[in-house]
Amino acid sequence: MAFRRDPKTPAMTTDLPQHVFRLRVRYDECDPMGFVHHSNYLRYFEIGRTEFLRSSGGRYREVEEAGLYVVVVHVDCRYRASARYDDEIDIVTRIAKITAAKIIHE
Length: 106
Fold this sequence. Notes:
The structure is a single chain. With 106 residues, this protein is α+β, with helices and mostly antiparallel strands. The chain has 2 helices and 4 strands. A hairpin with a 4-residue loop joins strand 3 (88-98) and strand 4 (103-105).
């Protein structure tokens, strides 16, 4: 998943399905200096995955009611720029790979 702070930033190009979800950084997600605390980026990743599924007509609640559970086994994150309080960020989620046993999101 990638974040874009400025809506003028060109979209990432790919032939794979992707979804963009805009989020405004809230006060409680920031450290005393006004920067998003590093732990909150993982929450943003989860929002991206959930909203990606929702945009394609699915809901995790229904997936789990069907007896299927999604388990996160790996997360990789490189911090390239800081988001700050009240910034609007785009959470860009794309599917990198699907197999019978896993879905890899970027």
